[in-house]
Amino acid sequence: MAADAKKLLLCDCNKTMPLDGRSVAAALGLETPPVVNSELCRRHLASFEGVVKSGADMVVACTQEAALFRELHGELKGSGNVRFTNIRETAGWSHDANQAAPKIAALLALAALPEAEPVPAVSYKAEGKLLIIGQASVALQWAERLGE
Fold first, then answer.
1. What is d(CA 10, CA 53) in angstroms, rounded to the nearest whole number?
2. Dihedral sign computed on CA atoms, order 90, 92, 93, 95
3. Cα 24 off chain centre by
């Protein structure tokens, strides 16, 4: 996703954190600062809808309401990708929130990166011992299949 202020949806979560669009733009090297919404998931939902209708990929700086945004994206038949990042708990609600623009910019840039390519399958010789890491339901299914 190209760095574009129109594709970055920022929210200061009802003004509970200091969020300066100009500082974030400077940290990202953007000419135009992104709009900082206060209620992106409620009163300012039109900002999200506008980007969805444009067909652009976007980064939404809110993970708390990701389910709402995904549902709306589907209802609007959005064609662009939607990625989410949590700037509130990881930067905006911190003791150093007034100086958090570089960290917020890094979180936004990371969220905008393309998905990593899947790695090829690897063969292992367990020799009787195997550690399976993952969600319990899936790990247990694999353990049962490989137990023999």
1. 18
2. positive
3. 16
Task: Determine whether 78 is exposed, middle or buried from the number of CB atoms within 10 Å of its CB (0-12, 13-18, 19+).
Answer: buried
Q: What is the pTM of this model?
A: 0.72
**Residues near 140 by beta carbon (within 8 Å), at least 6 away in sequence:** none
**pLDDT value of position 3:** 62
In this structure, which long-range contacts are made by residues 74-78, counting pairs with CB atoms below 8 Å and at least 24 apart in sequence?
76/49, 76/52, 78/52, 78/53
Q: How confident is the chain (148 residues) per 10-residue block, as mean pLDDT?
A: 72 90 91 91 93 92 94 93 91 84 89 84 77 87 84
Q: Quick one: pLDDT at residue 40?
A: 92
Q: Which residues contact 134 (CB under 8 A, 6 or more apart)?
A: 142
Block residue for tokens 């709009």: 35
Of 3, 13, 1, nearest to 33 (Cα)? 3
Give, in degrees to the nearest 5, the angle at Cα 45 between 52 and 7.
40
pLDDT at 70: 95
Q: For residue 113, give the amino acid letter.
A: L
Could you tell me the two tokens for 148? 């023999």
Structure tokens at 50: 């506008």
Q: For residues 76 and 8, what is the distance between their CA atoms, to the nearest angstrom? A: 18
